[in-house]
Amino acid sequence: MLRDFKLDPTFISVLVERWRPEIHAFHFPCGECTITLEDVALQLGLPIDRLVITRTTIVPSKKDICEAFLGKVSTKFQSARIDMKWLENNFKELPKDATDVVKEQFA
Description:
This is Aminotransferase-like plant mobile domain-containing protein. It comes from Gossypium stocksii. Residues 4-92 form the Aminotransferase-like plant mobile domain. InterPro entries: AminoTfrase-like_pln_mobile (IPR019557), MAIN-like (IPR044824). The chain is built from 5 helices and 5 strands. By secondary structure, the chain is an alpha+beta fold. It folds into 2 domains: 2-44, no CATH class; 62-106, no CATH class. The strands form 2 sheets. Strands 1-2-3 form a 3-stranded antiparallel β-sheet. Strands 4-5 form a two-stranded antiparallel sheet. The longest helix has 10 residues, at 9-18. It is extended.
């Protein structure tokens, strides 16, 4: 599939200008957009032969999301983002006696 893809140098230049490495996303006037694994699979023609693994969680706030998925709450939110230094400081090394839940939070 990729061999049929035509490169547009102007479009690529615009994407490069709009890429924000600190958030791993493109910043457009309409909002932020990132590349998904599905995008990569479609571009490279990779077969997807199984369903994606997801789970549904309904949480009322970003602090609740942080608690639900990480087991801890950051005090350094930047809009809807968590400070990377906080993540590094809190999840750098998995405890030796970690439970399955803690392992999932560190994953």
